[in-house]
Amino acid sequence: MSGPGGGVGPGGSAGGAAEDGGGVRTYGGEQVDEEATVRQPRDAAGVFVELADALVEPLDVVDFLQVLTDRSGALLGASAAGLGLADQRGSLHLMARTGGGGPADFLEQQLHAGPGHDVFSTGVAVVDVDLAAVGERWPALGPAALGAAPGRVTALPLRWRGTVLGALAVVTPGDVRLSGSEVAVGQAMADVATVGLLQARSTAELVVLSEQLQTALQDRIVVDQAKGVLAATAGTSIPEAFRRLRRTARRRGVPLSVLAADVVAGRVDADLLDGR
């Protein structure tokens, strides 16, 4: 269900950060250039308040992870972001991704042979790898990277007491590099995802968490199907279809996966068609 989480960064904890001199910071074993282009995180406090509010209510895991992935991409100025979780056999699956033309194939495949896979296996962050060079480090990932726009990929572990549950990956456009503080914000978002997943379980046993992750993976498939059905029926885009599903589910107080199952079964009502 989980990676060994054996990677330990400077300072004694997986993904930790330490100064390396010359404006370069070591984070999880990777060097981060503090003099690189820095973007101010947009409303980071507001994002963490929003996620904290979600954690005090009964948690819809699929919706929560999608919101967290969306916000992670926005905070870090990413062109795409994806969050992968492990199933009961230890295989990673893409649970959420930013919509609107992102490199979906790359985000999926990097979980199996790329930054996300390495992060899951070691618990150590992979920071600012040029997409043009990923084929040298991960040959199987080369074709998917060539299909993506120029950029750099960073992957961060979802970790808990030495156990890695998954990985959060962000792709920044062009030659934009994440600063050390931005990598720290990204890791904090990954940690919030972990807290949400742990809160969703009913006992302290990891086997129970694994079963719940399996259910969440199945729910995500249903939600993806519902987005396609609603987009085709209402004549709208996939991102807009998802916004309508999420808004309607919250207004009615039902789990996103339950509403999605209704849509897949052909029960698409006026609220969803009209986007009200």
Give a summary of the structure in a few sentences.
It contains eleven helices and eight strands. It is of the alpha+beta class and 276 residues long. The protein has two domains: 17-200, GAF domain (Beta-Lactamase), CATH 3.30.450.40; 213-274, Orthogonal Bundle (Arc Repressor Mutant, subunit A), CATH 1.10.10.
What is the overall silhouette?
A: globular
- The oligomerization state is single chain
The CATH homologous superfamily of the largest domain is termed GAF domain
Question: Would you identify the CATH architecture of the largest domain?
Answer: 2-Layer Sandwich
Order of helices and strands: EEEHHEEHHEHHEEHHHHH
Please provide the count of β strands: 8
What's the total helix number?
Answer: 11
Strand order of the largest sheet: 5-4-8-7-6
Biggest beta sheet summary: 5 strands, antiparallel
Roughly what is the average pLDDT, rounded to an integer?
Answer: 77
Amount of beta strand: 15-25%
In the CATH scheme, the class of the largest domain would be Alpha Beta
Number of domains: 2
Task: Return the CATH topology of the largest domain.
Answer: Beta-Lactamase
Distance between the ends:
40 Å
Work out the radius of gyration. Answer: 18 Å
Provide the structure class: alpha+beta
Helix content: 40-55%
Low-confidence stretches: 1-42, 202-206
Describe this structure in words.
- It is a single chain.
- By secondary structure, the chain is an alpha+beta fold.
- It has 2 domains: 17-200, Beta-Lactamase (2-Layer Sandwich); 213-274, Arc Repressor Mutant, subunit A, CATH 1.10.10.
- 47% of the residues lie in helices and 18% in strands.
- The protein contains 11 helices and 8 strands.
- It has a 5-stranded antiparallel β-sheet, with helices on both faces. It has a 3-stranded antiparallel β-sheet with strand order 1-2-3, covered by helices on one side.
- The longest helix has 29 residues, at 206-234.
- It is globular, with a radius of gyration of 18 Å.
- The protein starts with 16 loop residues before the first strand and ends with a helix.
- Mean pLDDT is 77; it is low at 1-42 and 202-206.
